[in-house]
Write a structure and sequence with these properties.
- It contains 10 helices and 13 strands.
- By secondary structure, the protein is α/β, with parallel strands linked by helices.
- The protein has 2 domains: about 130 residues, no CATH class; about 240 residues, Purple Acid Phosphatase, chain A, domain 2 (4-Layer Sandwich).
- Helix 3 packs across helix 4.
């Protein structure tokens, strides 16, 4: 954790230093203006640490206010830097063209209008992103299978993931997700990790929302990395109070045709409880002929598991949450959000997530609740995927 914090503050502090440089070039700040802006940027660099300390100290309302300000600024700063990077690349291309090809130099934006335009566009996108983060969408996936018994016309599963209940994702946002689940009327609800993102002792009333859901086959959850970051025992208590059965590197048989296999996130290694071979071992024990649903937080397909499951449900990457951050998440998890068919059979579905982490905004990656209908092969000849609402 100490190493992570050091790297984070080096990167985040450098980003603020770059912003100060651009502001100094684009605006006539003067000494007083530069000192005031530097003071603001220093506060914003330290804001994530202040939020954590305040939350741990039980100062929830103050921590929440700091979280909204500090993390909203974080989203704005990321968008600003992304826009500036585009113009910096254009400048580099212009410089190379002038130097090597001897083309006439073409002027680009002067420092002042460039800085102001990037600030304005970043602020507008961040404002829209706050609105987009509240618009929970229902994605509908239809999967034909010959593993449903005669007489079962449909099995409906709802997936939620990466809700990140904490200082920002609270009652109002959770209520939207719960209502989307209720409207879908599922047979089974599964949560694929990162349901919490803070000091879960403060989540009064949220567990009751989930307990109001009564799917016939119950609710099952696996852990993500944030369950361990937020506090393992408290996260476990919250999920259990919410009515979820925890599937910790285990499997559960539902009826004569459905097998749930759930594996822990690698973050369990900090407790000495992660074993890389658990997934393959569990899948090998599933009786043949059953539909195998693999619940796994990170969208990684284990080579030893290929061909052993029908559908893997994952999350974790949020589709980047704020474009173009998805270009960076793709480096670690090179799968697209949505449905990914696998050559060995089966499929991987990667949800965009149901909440937000860090900045309370989303851009080109709206939150989702995923409705998966398993239907007999005779009623549908192909996998269908699309938005139903």
């Amino acid at each position: 954790m100490g190493l992570f914090m050091l790297i984070f503050f080096l990167i985040y502090g450098s980003a603020h230093g770059y912003f100060l440089l651009r502001a100094s070039q684009g605006l006539a700040l003067g000494r007083t203006g530069t000192l005031l802006l530097s003071f603001w940027l220093l506060i914003m660099v330290l804001a994530p640490l202040a939020v954590w300390l305040l939350e741990q100290g039980g100062h929830e309302q103050t921590a929440r206010a700091c979280a909204y300000i500090g993390y909203s600024w974080m989203g704005f700063l990321f968008l600003f830097l992304s826009l500036m990077l585009v113009f910096d690349l254009l400048r580099l291309v212009r410089y190379l063209a002038v130097f090597f090809v001897r083309v006439p130099a073409v002027g680009l934006f002067a420092p002042r209008p460039l800085f102001l335009v990037c600030c304005l566009v970043a602020a507008l996108i961040a404002g829209y992103g706050w609105f987009e983060a509240l618009q929970v969408r229902t994605e509908h996936l239809v999967i034909p299978t010959d593993k449903l018994p005669t007489g079962v016309a449909r099995l409906r599963i709802v997936q939620i993931t990466d809700l990140h209940v904490g200082l920002i994702v609270r009652d109002g946002r959770v209520a939207r997700v719960v209502e989307a689940i209720r409207q879908a009327a599922p047979d089974l609800v599964v949560a694929t990790g990162d349901m919490v993102d803070g000091h879960v002792g403060h989540f009064d009333g949220i567990s009751e929302m989930f307990r109001g859901l009564t799917p016939p086959l119950g609710m099952v959850a696996v852990y993500g990395n944030h369950e361990y970051y937020a506090g393992f025992s408290q996260a476990t208590g919250f999920l259990q109070r919410s009515g979820f059965e925890l599937l910790r590197s285990g499997h559960r048989e539902l009826g004569d045709y459905l097998s749930l296999v759930g594996v822990d996130d690698p973050a369990a290694a900090q407790r000495g409880e992660f074993h890389a071979d658990d997934e393959g071992r569990l899948l090998a024990t599933v009786p043949p002929g059953r539909f195998v649903l693999l619940l796994k937080h990170r969208p990684v397909v284990d080579p030893a598991s290929r061909g052993r499951f029908d559908l893997q449900l994952s999350g974790h990457v949020h589709k980047g949450q704020v474009f173009p951050f998805n270009l960076l998440t793709w480096l670690n998890f090179p799968v697209r959000a949505g449905l990914n068919r696998l050559a060995e059979g089966g499929a991987l579905y990667v949800s965009r997530g149901s909440g937000t982490w860090g900045p309370p905004i989303r851009f080109l990656a709206p939150p989702e609740v995923t409705v998966i209908d398993l239907v007999p092969t005779s009623t549908s000849s192909a996998v269908r995927y699309g938005r139903s609402s």
